[in-house]
Amino acid sequence: MTNTERIINVFIDLLAGQPLTTEQFMEKYHVTKRTVQRDMGSLRDLLAASKIDYQFEHKNRSNLYALTPTNRIQLEQALSLLKLMIGTRAFQKDELVQIVDALTALLAPDEQDVVRKLCSVSLAEYTPVGQPDQVLLPRLKQFSTWIMKRTTLSFKYQHSYDGQVHSEIGVPISVYFANYYFYIVMFNEHRPQGVYRLDRFRTVKPVTDRKIRLRYDKKINEADLNNKTYLLHGGSDLTYTFRYWAFPQTALDKLPNSRVIKVMPDQSVIIEAESFEQGVLLWLLGQGPRVKVLTPPSLVNAVQDALKATLAKYDQWVQ
Q: What domain of life is recorded for the organism (predicted)?
């Protein structure tokens, strides 16, 4: 065995997590202590010059040589990402565990234990949204490929407005996450920015006999779309104003790109914002007496109609 072959074998053993003492090295390769020191010195220099994510260690007291993985991600980064993932409730538990394992594997062994312990209670009591058989990771991978290749797709999709499954065709152009769910933005000749929930696709397959070409004059600004679909994406794009009698930052945090345009004498504020009508209507109705819509008239009427219909149901219940 040549010197190079011996060093490679030692490196493979250490990389596999098998520490090696000087005595074990001498016995296994039939070399002197001086050779061990020379080989390990060469290995240490090679690792120092490389970008491999391992640290070479030599413990003088036990004469033990080992390789320990260095962090490819910081503990606080891994922990914050995992807590966010758990908080979204988007994935089924099996898929979430896969993500936890993948992220913690980027940490040093002692920090892996810390992160796992800090996430253990949240994982034990984790309750996902959606159906129990809902699998997202393979879908995300497949759609990412279709998005990059601008693949024309034929698909069956279950819409929320009627619960029925409809056959459609389109080109996926982006993917984003909001409020528990992943969404796919699709383009076709009739809807340049159709938004579809990833888990509601029933069947999807590439189309070989037809290709939809994107119109770049209709190019989607994904960040702008995401800022308007933080609630729900149904209805028309709407700019609106409302008076708010609660802590202003609560509304500003919930409504991206919103701004306070006036502070009233009673310390209430007038806020201007932009979103899709269906989502903002539900949010406004959830604010109760803390909010009053000012413009546009169509939204004022929609809020009034919804409140009247709600009160009518309570009047029926009393009778």
A: Bacteria
